[in-house]
Design a protein that fits this description.
Number of strands: 0
Helix content: 55-70%
Bound molecules: heme C
Number of domains: 1
Largest sheet: none
Radius of gyration: 15 Å
Order of helices and strands: HHHHHHH
Number of helices: 7
Length: about 130
């Protein structure tokens, strides 16, 4: 569904993403302690190549899970567009920190890079609708 216009662009998508937030976070948190699925290897998903990694982990999974960050690959121009869209969503970060995040994402989540494996529960937090 929802394939005819920008998949992530619609107002409905935004509302839905906001509504999903609680559910999605629940899914992530339930996972580790319960051990229902293999533990996430966070070093594989977010290679520890610099400060961008922790900035992402600490600031980017409040509204949605890590799933869109990991599975959606963007060219530099697409990422720069994303950055303009997302800047205000992490208002507590400095411009410098946000730039570090943006460069980290370009380095690791651009077309041509291997997409880290995520458990189905996490994939479902982004693709289910
Ligand atoms: C205040 C809430 C919020 C925070 C914090 C947030 N996001 Fe998002 N993000 C969203 C919403 C809502 C969407 C759904 C699409 C949209 O509205 O742009 C989204 C979508 C995305 C997407 C999919 C592509 C797109 O733009 O739709 C990516 C990638 C992403 N976010 C990465 C991040 C990263 C990286 C961070 C940390 C810098 C982050 N998000 C922090 C709310 C947030």
């Amino acid at each position: 569904m929802n394939t005819t216009r920008g998949i992530w662009g619609g107002r409905l998508t935004r509302l839905f993403a906001a509504a999903m937030m609680g559910l999605a976070m629940g899914a992530v948190m339930a996972q580790a302690p319960a051990g229902r699925s293999p533990r996430l290897d966070m070093d594989k998903i977010f290679p520890p190549t610099g400060p961008g990694r922790n900035l992402v982990l600490n600031n980017c999974a409040n509204c949605h899970t890590i799933t869109p960050i990991v599975v959606i690959q963007m060219t530099r121009p697409a990422r720069e567009r994303w950055a303009r869209d997302h800047r205000d969503r992490v208002g507590a970060l400095t411009d410098q920190e946000f730039k570090v995040i943006t460069e980290y994402l370009i380095k690791h989540f651009s077309p041509g890079q291997p997409i880290p494996q995520l458990p189905q529960e996490l994939l479902d937090t982004w693709t289910n609708y």
